[in-house]
Write a structure and sequence with these properties.
- The protein is α+β, with helices and mostly antiparallel strands and about 270 residues long.
- It folds into 2 domains: about 110 residues, AhpD-like (Up-down Bundle); about 140 residues, Jelly Rolls.
- The protein is about 35% helix and about 25% strand.
- A hairpin with a 5-residue loop joins strand 5 and strand 6.
- It starts with a strand and ends with a helix.
């Protein structure tokens, strides 16, 4: 089955819907495997292995939102809330969003419960607060806007990225900003004719890598031409924010195929 969606090639493209993601959890067995093995099994294999893994029915980001709302509403602000707040952040919920979510919950579930939840949320999103200051400083280095958090496609990125669309006709062009260490998954731009992408370094320092070839360091002014059918990834260096323009090359039957994440080992080999 195919679906038309907006993805990081910055145009309307068609991708194949992949099988639902399997969530692996071992906390039950790690903490209670010897004391309550059945409970541990239900926690790891049913709650997470089956219910949370139904990402074809409800996205992880939405499941996180439902879960933290349920916990705060019941006044459960112990370690379980902390765990699910961290998972919510990993699933793409931003500091601004969690602040608004807890504020909204406070009116319906109780003000003291919101206060208790905020104490944990501030700790979980503390790095993001510092990141926003760094993002503002990086914005001053370039003429293009950083843009909005690319939360809709966070599942295809390691770390946080931001998207600012600059043009859609006659070609699609956008400025993409990556926080330090952020990179997208390996992916391939597909087309039966034409297609592909051009990247132009705007600010900071980043990397581009094609499968089977050495990585290319990207700096302001670096131009990368990516033909259709080439497996590759791109993102920021470990010690720098990075932004590039992404220009879509028109093509016939264009689509984008998302593949596996870039591993830490693959990434560390670049530095």
């Amino acid at each position: 089955m195919n679906r038309i969606i907006l993805i990081s090639t910055f145009s309307i493209l068609t991708i194949n819907i992949m099988a639902q993601k399997k969530i692996v959890q071992t906390a039950g067995r790690d903490q209670l495997g010897g004391f309550a093995p059945k409970f541990a099994e239900l926690n790891d294999d049913v709650l997470f292995g089956q219910v949370w893994s139904r990402t074809d029915k409800l996205a992880l980001r939405d499941r996180s939102l439902v879960t933290i709302t349920a916990l705060i509403s019941q006044g459960i602000t112990d370690g379980s809330l902390g765990f699910h707040l961290r998972e919510a952040k990993n699933n793409g919920i931003t500091r601004t969003e969690i602040a608004e979510i807890i504020t909204h919950i406070g009116f319906y579930a109780g003000w003291p419960k919101a206060w208790a939840a905020f104490r944990q949320a501030k700790e979980v999103w503390a790095e993001e607060a510092a990141g926003e200051e760094a993002r503002a400083a990086f914005q001053r280095e370039m003429i293009f806007p950083v843009g909005e958090p690319n939360t809709a496609y966070a599942q295809y990125f390691t770390g946080n990225s931001y998207l600012a669309r600059l043009a859609s006709e006659p070609i699609s062009m956008a400025n993409v900003t990556f926080e330090p260490r952020c990179r997208n998954n390996w992916h391939i731009h597909r087309a039966t004719e034409g297609g592909g992408q051009i990247l132009v370094g705007v600010a900071g320092r980043g990397w581009y890598r094609e499968e089977g070839k050495p990585a290319v360091e990207m700096r302001p002014g670096t131009v990368i031409r990516i033909p259709a059918g080439v497996k590759h990834w791109h993102g920021a260096a470990a010690d720098s924010w990075f932004a590039h323009l992404a220009v879509e090359i028109p093509g016939q039957n264009a689509s984008n195929e998302w593949l596996e994440p870039v591993t830490e080992q693959e990434y560390e080999e670049l530095e």
